[in-house]
Amino acid sequence: MSPSQLCVALAQINPVVGDLEGNVGQIREAMASAHQAGADLVVTPELAVTGYPPQDLLFQSRFLTRVESALTELMPNVAGVDLVVGHPEWAGDGLYNTATWIRDGEILGRYRKQCLPNYGVFDEKRYFREGWGSLVGVIGGARVGVTICEDAWTEGGPVTGAAEAGAEVLVNLNASPYDYVKGRRREQELGARACEAGLPIAYVNLVGGQDELVFDGASFVVAADGDVVSRAPAFQERLVLSEWARDGRELQPQSGEAPLAKNLEAEVLGALTMGIRDYVVKNGFPGVVVGLSGGIDSALTLCLAVQALGPDRVEAMFMPSRYTAAISGQDSRQLAEALGVTLHELPIDSIHQAFLDTLEGDLGTDPHGAAAENIQARARGALLMALSNEKGLMVLATGNKSEMSMGYATLYGDMVGGFSALKDVPKTLVYRLAEHLNRDGERIPRRIIERAPSAELAPDQKDADTLPPYPLLDAILYAYVEENCGLEEIVERGFDGETVRRVLNRVENNEYKRRQAPPGVRISPRGFGTDRRFPITNRYRF
User: Angle at which helices 427-437 and 470-477 pack, to 10 degrees?
Assistant: First the structure.
C-alpha cells in the first residue's frame, strides 16, 4: 500500500444548543488540532454551529442572522486544513439543514440535507426544506462526497447520488441520539450503503446531552465492503484521525482503534452519566440533591449523580416516616458514606401528622388510603425543594420507567425534580445496572438490591401488592411502549390477556402524570416524551 493520500479528522464535539460563540470555538479548536496533526479535512457533526436540535429557535429570524454571522466569522479561521461544517442555512426560498465546505476562507460548496426524518424524536420537516443534488470536493488527490445523517439511511438515495457524481469517499455528518439498539443499526445501515454505492464512508456523530437526548458519538469508518475499520469511543469528546491510502485506483481507509462497550450495562451507564452531567452543567446548576428512601431506584440515582458530577456537587436527603423501616436508614447512611456524599436526615412524621390533623378537622374523618400515603410523598417533595431553593441545587428525581408507565408515583411528591435519571430505565434494568456498579466492590449495599421493593407509605407495603412482578410487567411494557404492539399481539406472545389489558389501560390512564414529570435521559428506542405523544383527554381503552 502506498503512503497515505488523505487524512480526515472527524470532530466528535459536544456543542450546546444556542451557544453559537462556544460552538464555533470548539470547531476552531478541532481545526487547530487537526492542522497540527497533518489532517487535510475536518468534518463536524450535523448542525454543529447551533447544536442539535435547535427546535423552534429556527423560527426566530434574529437567531438565524446570528448563525450566519457566526459562520462568517469562522470562515477566515479556516486555513491550512479544509472544513466541512454543519449549520442551518436560510437560502431565500426556505431553511435548509446544510453542510458547507470551506477552504482558505472561501466556500467551496454547499450540500443541503435531502432526507428529513420526521418520526420519533425527529421533526425536521417542521423546520427544513429538502435539498437536492450532490457535493463532491477534491482534496489530497481524492474526490470526497458529503451527505448528512438520514441521507445515508436511505437505500438508493443521496449516497448513490454521490457515487454517481464521482465521489471516491463519503463523509456523513450526524446528530444521531443514543438508544441501546441504535449503535448496531447505524453500522449495519452505513455498511449497507457503502456496499450499495461501492464507497467507503466516514461517519461523524455529535456527543453530549441535550435535554432528554444523549448523543453518544461513536463515530466510525466503514470500508467499501461494509466492514467497520475504525470506531471512536462512545460518550467522549474526541478528534478522530482517519487515514486513507490508494490501493490501485481505490482509496481505502486504514484500520484504527475500534473499541466497543463491554456490555449493555456499561453502555447505558455511560449514557445516563453523560445525560445527567450535561443537563446540570449546561443549565448552570452548582449540583444536585437526591432523596434517598433506602430503595434501589434512589440508590442507583445517587451513584449516577456522583459518577457524573463528583461527590462534592451531590447531596442526599433521607426523610423517614412512621412506616420507614430501620434498615432503610441504615442502608441510606452506608450508601452516602461509601460515596462520600453529605446526607441530611429530616424525619417527616410531625409534618405528616400536622397534615392529617388539619384535614381531619375539616373533613370530620381521618384521611386514609392514597390521601394519607401521598401526604408523606408530598412532604418529602417540599423538603427537597426547600433545600433546592436554599442552595441552588437541582432535585434529581428517582422514578423509573416501569413506575412512570403505571402511574406508580405521586404528583408533587416523589415526582418532583428538575431532571429524572431513570425516567427511561425499566425496573429490571435498574437491578442490572446496580449489579454492574457493584462488580468491583459493593457501592450499593447488598440489602438494597435484595429487598422486595416498597414505597413504605403504609404498613408492610410492597410494590407487588398493586403491580405485576417486574419481569412480567417490563416485558409487557416493552412490547407496548417500545414496539408499539397492540393487546392481541402481546397476548399472542403468551401473556395472560386480562393482565395485559390491565397494564395497557393503566398506562393510558396515567398520561396526565407523565406529562407533568420532569424530563429525563432517553436510552430506549421509544421513551416517554417527544417519542410518544398521546392525548391526555382520551377515552380509548383496551
Answer: 120
Tens digit of each residue's pLDDT, the chain (542 residues)? 344 588 999 999 999 999 999 999 999 999 999 999 999 999 999 999 999 999 999 999 999 999 999 999 999 999 999 999 999 999 988 999 999 999 999 999 999 999 999 888 888 999 999 999 999 999 988 899 999 999 999 888 999 999 999 999 999 999 999 999 888 889 999 999 999 999 999 999 999 999 999 999 999 999 999 999 988 999 999 999 988 887 766 777 777 776 666 689 999 999 999 999 999 999 999 999 999 999 999 999 999 999 999 999 999 999 999 988 899 999 999 999 999 999 999 999 999 999 898 888 887 777 778 888 889 999 999 999 999 999 999 999 999 999 999 999 888 988 999 999 999 999 999 999 999 999 988 899 999 999 887 776 777 778 778 889 999 999 999 999 999 999 999 999 999 999 999 999 999 999 999 999 999 999 999 998 888 888 888 888 88
Cis peptide bond upstream of 45, omega within 30: no
CB-CB contact of 424 with 526 (8 Å):
no
Q: Cell numbers 454517481 label which residue?
A: 164
Topology (CATH level 3) of domain 4-260: Nitrilase/N-carbamoyl-D-aminoacid amidohydrolase (3.60.110)
Q: Which of 106, 62, 29, 55 is nearest to 530 (CA)?
A: 55
Mention every residue, 6+ apart, whose C-beta is less than 8 A from residue 117: 124, 149, 150
Q: Pick from 378, 357, 299, 374: which is nearest to 332 by CA? A: 299
Which own/partner contact pairs does 455-460 have at CB distance under 8 Å and 24+ positions apart?
A: 455/373, 455/377, 455/408, 456/293, 456/294, 456/295, 456/321, 456/323, 456/324, 456/325, 456/328, 457/321, 457/323, 457/373, 457/374, 457/376, 457/377, 458/323, 458/372, 458/373, 459/323
Helix (H) or strand (E) holding 171: strand 169-174
What does the buried/exposed string (b/e) look like for 311-336 if buried means 16 or more CB atoms within 10 Å of the residue's CB? bebbbbbbbbbebbeeebbebbbbbb
Fill in the amino acid letter for 433.
Answer: L
For the chain, the structural domain boundaries read 4-260, 265-463
Superfamily of domain 265-463 in the CATH hierarchy? HUPs (3.40.50.620)
* Alpha-carbon separation of residue 437 from 434, 442, 443, 445 (angstroms): 5, 8, 7, 11
Do the Cβ atoms of 21 and 257 come closer than 8 Å?
no
CB within 8 Å of 148: residues ≥ 6 apart: 46, 86, 97, 99, 111, 113, 172, 173, 174
- Active-site positions read 46, 113, 149
Write the DSSP symbol of residue 243.
Answer: E
**Long-range CB contacts (within 8 A, 24+) of 357-361:** none
